Amino acid sequence: MSEWIAHFQPIVALIAGILILITPRFLNVIVAFYLILIGASGLGVLN
């Protein structure tokens, strides 16, 4: 699973960066979802 996460994080970061450039007002929402996903995968909630 850690190999999947290693490939998933750069893709999410790239998409989030593009969305932030297009609509900066969604910065809080994008960062919040990213942190929730990374935290849940780190705790093993997402198998």
What does it look like?
Helix 1 (2-22) packs antiparallel against helix 2. The protein contains 2 helices and no strands. The protein has one domain (2-43). It has 47 residues and is mainly α. The chain has helices at residues 2-22, 27-43. The model has no long low-confidence stretch (mean pLDDT 79).
Structure, briefly:
This protein is mostly helical and 47 residues long. It contains two helices and no strands.
**Helices and strands, in N-to-C order?**
HH
Which whole number gives the mean pLDDT?
A: 79
> What's the number of extended β-strand segments?
0
What is the CA-CA span between the terminal residues? 8 Å
Tally of helical segments: 2
Low-confidence regions: none
Specify the overall morphology: flat
Summed up, the domain count is 1
Largest sheet: none
Percent of residues in β-strands: under 5%
Helix/strand class? mainly alpha
As a percent range, the share of helical residues equals over 70%
